[in-house]
Amino acid sequence: MKTRDLSKLGTIERAEVQRIFDAWNKYGLPDGYGYSEIAIEFDQSTGDVYLINEHDQCCMVAGSSLETFYKTPYGGYTGFFDDLASDYSTLCDEDKLYVENIAYELGRKDELR
After folding, report:
1. CA–CA separation, 44 vs 3, rounded Å?
2. Burial level of 59, CB count in 10 A (0-12/13-18/19+)?
3. pLDDT of residue 94
């Protein structure tokens, strides 16, 4: 279950919120991430804490900065771009097209195998 109710966050999740804000303050939002109606969301089933915007774009801390976290529309594969790029050859054609579009937007099309 996903929630934006911060009272549901425990100590670990609140620390992750702090990491998110620290990364946002230091490095900004990921390229292509929409800057409107941004909220903190907590997925209680996975423990993930992330930013989400009005377009349902999600970003999470990766290393020390924020990266967009994707979910393919057909197979439901999730991950950062690097994760999806490394799994590219195993994706169905529709999900490959989705990842190709992301790669094009990021200028990283040559990284798909």
Report:
1. 7
2. buried
3. 96
DSSP assignment letter at 112: -
pLDDT in tens, 30-85: 988 988 999 999 999 999 999 999 999 999 999 999 999 999 999 999 999 999 99
Domain borders along the chain are 1-71, 72-108
Please tell me the pTM assigned to this model: 0.88
Give how far the C-alpha of residue 37 lies from the chain's centroid of Cα atoms, to the nearest Å. Answer: 16
Q: Phi/psi at 46 (nearest 5 deg)?
A: -110, -20
Mean pLDDT score, 84-93: 95
d(CA 21, CA 103): 26
Give ∠ CA 58-60-66 in degrees, rounded to 5: 105
Contacts of 61 (CB under 8 A, 6+ apart): 16, 19, 20, 23, 67
99, 84 contact by CB (below 8 A): yes
